[in-house]
Amino acid sequence: MRAVAPLTDAARARAEKSDPNQGRCLIQNIDDKDVVELTYVFPRERSGDVKMMRSLEYIWGMREGTLNLDTRRNMFFLGEPLRSLYKKRRWALCPEESVVDKFLCPVPDGHHPKPLVRDRFPELSVSANPKPDVTICTLIRVLLPMQDATFKYTFFPLSEMNFGILRQTESTAMGVDNFTVHTHPFATLPPVTSHIHPKFALLQLSSHLFNYRSDPYISKLVKSSRLVRKVLSFYTAWNRVMLPPFADIDPTFVTIPSAPPNLRPHSDDGAHSDNPSDHDEESEEYYEPSDGDSTSTPPRRVWYPPPPPRRFPLVSRSQPQPKRRAGPPDSTGSGADPEPPLKQRKIEEDQEGWSATSITAWARATSESPPVASSTHNASE
């Protein structure tokens, strides 16, 4: 099995170049290279979940095999210990509600909105803020450049966090007055600006809300917040959904419609389309397939091995059988297991399979012929 593809220097450079915070910690605003590291919004290793990746590619209006989680839109910078806590899903980033609404089909008040899919999936930019007509959901899609788009996010705790967060208010000043302390529920933390795409933030946040919806803290959030209920709806609409029957012959989704499902590249290792026009939101930029010095994300999945199938051990008849449990002591008081009746022994041997040795032993044990008298004994009579 081939090794997991490592993060390339070009991918890291793209994230650093696109970050409006210039590589500083998104939440604490500190610039210490020893503690600030590159972080994925949605985990890179989820590329190994082929069914989920295919579902996302279809819903998000992409070609099959082109969702690359190494895109700069899925990376940002965090310092410790917030980075470790983020990976443990103790907190997440939540987009503004006005941005969340762009991914939902608008409905009259009192109705539950549904996430937009494929041909109506929005492409966003900072200037895209129209008020859509609630009666024409099909015209909601906004086609504007994504290259320089930034979005605002709020720090969203997903559990009780009994500590404070120190945030640097000025990028260059180091005085005491240039730092503020924020405690749970961190409502005093200002919104942060980032280049990451809201779809990755929504995917990560909705995944946690769904998987931990029985947790008392999460359950309370869902009941009390309309925004949280909106975000929660994305998980079931995006993740591992059953695609429509025509998806396998949709020329805008599959590269080779005639290929059977078990022979297409996605079925075993998540291979990608080599068509340069079939990529994600960075489609207007030039890229090199090698990703050595490319200026945009190559349109291919990051290869990760799929989860190993469950294997059950096979019991061979040639293998020694496990010892029987020790029964009650016999009448002699020796503590040894009593010999089972001949009929029971025969049934057990039938189940285990006959051998030359077992047939001979059974024949001797079941024989009722009296022993043959010796010649000396006959002579004495």
Q: What is the average per-residue confidence, as pLDDT, rounded to a whole number? A: 76
Provide the structure class.
alpha+beta
Strand content: 5-15%
Distance between the amino and carboxyl termini: 84 Å
The H-and-E topology, N to C, reads as HEHEHEHEEEEEEHHHHHH
**Which outline best applies?**
globular
Count the strands?
A: 9
Largest sheet, in brief, is: 3 strands, antiparallel
Low-confidence stretches: 126-145, 257-261, 263-294, 331-336, 375-381
Per DSSP, the total helix count is 10
* Percentage of residues assigned to helices: 10-25%
Write a concise synopsis of the structure shown:
By secondary structure, the chain is an alpha+beta fold. 25% of the residues lie in helices and 10% in strands.
Q: Strands, helices and their partners?
A:
Blueprint: H1 9-18, E1 36-40, H2 50-59, E2 75-79, H3 82-87, E3 91-95, H4 97-101, E4 104-105, E5 114-115, E6 151-157, E7 165-168, E8 179-182, E9 192-194, H5 198-211, H6 216-224, H7 226-238, H8 342-352, H9 356-366, H10 375-380
Antiparallel strand pairs: 1-2, 3-6, 4-5, 6-9, 7-8
Helix pairs in contact: 5-7, 6-7, 8-9
